[in-house]
Fold:
Amino acid sequence: MNKTGSDERKGHEIIMCMGSACFTRGNNRSVEIVKDYLEKNELTAETTFRGCLCSNRCKAAPVIIIDGQPFEKVVPQAVNEVLDHVFKEGGNENESA
Ligand code: FES
Structure:
């Protein structure tokens, strides 16, 4: 299963559902938004970002799974908010700029 060793997990894992329901309802655009977010926040090195086929939550599409937690109905406009919730509020919600 892990013969190559290339499946090593990084600090965070983002799995974007690329099944047809999620893809057409927004994940086709959200892929770039997530990539951009990770680059801007210098999170690429510590984050595994991959796609999956249908994750059996089509009624709640588009779905993004972050660190094992499914986020449902994440339209492209909401992607940054969800990522902020996970990466910036995780453990230090009251931090302000
Ligand atoms: S296509 Fe994403 S949950 Fe089915």
Observations:
- The chain has one domain: 12-87.
- The chain has a mean pLDDT of 88.
